[in-house]
C-alpha cells in the first residue's frame, strides 16, 4: 500500500470513528481490510480505499466495522462487576428508593458480553429490586457486533472465557454447539448501533457507564470529547468504569478517581454536598 493510501485510510478512520492508526500499523490495516476486499471481489486494499474515497457510504461503514478490535469477554477483569454488585447496586437501592428505576450504559459493547455480564450481575440480586425498572443499554459503532450481541448466541470458546460454570448453567441454554442467553437476561438489555463521536443525548441519562477498552484507540482530543459527552449522560452521583489501567488523570476534570487501578471513577458532581457518589461504599 502506498503512503498516500495509508494516509487517506487513516484520516478517514479517525474522522469516522476516532481510531488512530500510525504508519507502523499498515499491516493491521491491510490484514483487517483484506476480508472486505475479497468479499467485494476487488483486487487490493488500495482499490478498496479508492472506492471508499469516492463515496460509497455502505463501503465506508464496512471499512470502519472491519477495522474495529472487538476483543471482549464475560466478566472481563471481573473487579468492576464485583464493585457493581457490592457497592453500586446497594447504594442505588437506597438512593433511588421511591424512583425504583436505574439505567446502565455499556459503551463500546462489542458482541454483548459486557452488557450481558452487567445484566447477570443485576439478576443475581434481583430479589432486592422487586418491581424496579432496570435497563442496560449496549452501544457500539460496529453494526455487525451489535447484530451478534442482539442474537445473544455464544460459542463454547466464548463462554469458557470468564464465565463461571454456575452462571453459565443458570443463564444460558445449550443450542447445538452454542449457548443462548436466557430471556430473563435478554429482556433487560437493549443493543443499538451508535457512534461515540456522534450526539449521545438521545440515549438518555445513566446511573453507571461502562466504557472499557474503547478510549485507548483515540487520541487525547477525541478521548476528552468523548469523556465530556459521557459526563453529561451520567447522573450527578453516577459512576464510570474504564478499562483496568486506562488512566484519565490529567485528561479531564469531569471525573474523580475512586479506584483508578481498577478503572472506577465518579462524576465530579458527586462532590457536591447534596449528592454522595454511587461509587463509594457507605454503611447503609
Ligand atoms: C476492545 S472492544 C471492548 C469491548 C468491551 N467494552 C470490553 O472491554 O470487553 C472495543 C469496542 O469499541 C468499539 N468502538 C470503537 N470506536 C467506537 C466509537 N467511536 N463508537 C462506538 N464504539 C466504538 C469497537 O467497535 C469495539 O467493539
Summarize the structure.
With 284 residues, the chain is an alpha/beta fold.
Bulk shape = globular
- Counting DSSP E segments of at least 2 residues, the number of strands comes to 10
Identify the CATH homologous superfamily of the largest domain.
Vaccinia Virus protein VP39
Instruction: Provide the CATH topology of the largest domain.
Output: Rossmann fold
Largest sheet: 7 strands, mixed
Amino-to-carboxy terminus distance = 61 Å
Helix share, percent: 40-55%
Radius of gyration: 20 Å
Ligands bound to this protein structure: S-adenosylmethionine
Strand content: 15-25%
The topology string of helices and strands comes to HHHHHEHEHEHHEEHEEHEEE
Tally of domains: 2
Major β-sheet strand ordering: 6-2-1-7-8-10-9
Low-pLDDT sequence parts? none
Based on helices, strands and strand pairing, what is the structural class? alpha/beta
Average pLDDT metric: 94
Enumerate how many helices there are, as a single number. Answer: 11
- Give the class-level CATH name of the largest domain: Alpha Beta
Amino acid at each position: 500500500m502506498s503512503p498516500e493510501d495509508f494516509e487517506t485510510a487513516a484520516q478517514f478512520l479517525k474522522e469516522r470513528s476516532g481510531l488512530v492508526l500510525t504508519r507502523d500499523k499498515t499491516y493491521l490495516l491491510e490484514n483487517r481490510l483484506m476480508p472486505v476486499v475479497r468479499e467485494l471481489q476487488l483486487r487490493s486494499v488500495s482499490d478498496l480505499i479508492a472506492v471508499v474515497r469516492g463515496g460509497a457510504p455502505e463501503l465506508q461503514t464496512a471499512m470502519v466495522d472491519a477495522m474495529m478490535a472487538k476483543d471482549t469477554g464475560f466478566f472481563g477483569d471481573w473487579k468492576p462487576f464485583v464493585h457493581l454488585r457490592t457497592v453500586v447496586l446497594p447504594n442505588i437501592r437506597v438512593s433511588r428508593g421511591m424512583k425504583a428505576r436505574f439505567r446502565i450504559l455499556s459503551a463500546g459493547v462489542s458482541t454483548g458480553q459486557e452488557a450481558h455480564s452487567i445484566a447477570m450481575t443485576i439478576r443475581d440480586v434481583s430479589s432486592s429490586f422487586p418491581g424496579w425498572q432496570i435497563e442496560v443499554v449496549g452501544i457500539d459503532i460496529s453494526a455487525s457486533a451489535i447484530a451478534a450481541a442482539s442474537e445473544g448466541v455464544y460459542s463454547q470458546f466464548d463462554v469458557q472465557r470468564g464465565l463461571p460454570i454456575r452462571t453459565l448453567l443458570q443463564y444460558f441454554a445449550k443450542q447445538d454447539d452454542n449457548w443462548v442467553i436466557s430471556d430473563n437476561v435478554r429482556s433487560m438489555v437493549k443493543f443499538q448501533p451508535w457512534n461515540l463521536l456522534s450526539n449521545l443525548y438521545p440515549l438518555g441519562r445513566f446511573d453507571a457507564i461502562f466504557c472499557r477498552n474503547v478510549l485507548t484507540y483515540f487520541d487525547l482530543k477525541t478521548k476528552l470529547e468523548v469523556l465530556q459527552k459521557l459526563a453529561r449522560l451520567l447522573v450527578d452521583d453516577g459512576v464510570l468504569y474504564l478499562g483496568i489501567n486506562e488512566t484519565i488523570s490529567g485528561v479531564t476534570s469531569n471525573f474523580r478517581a475512586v479506584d483508578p487501578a481498577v478503572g472506577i471513577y465518579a462524576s465530579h458532581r458527586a462532590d457536591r454536598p447534596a449528592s454522595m457518589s454511587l461509587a463509594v461504599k457507605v454503611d447503609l
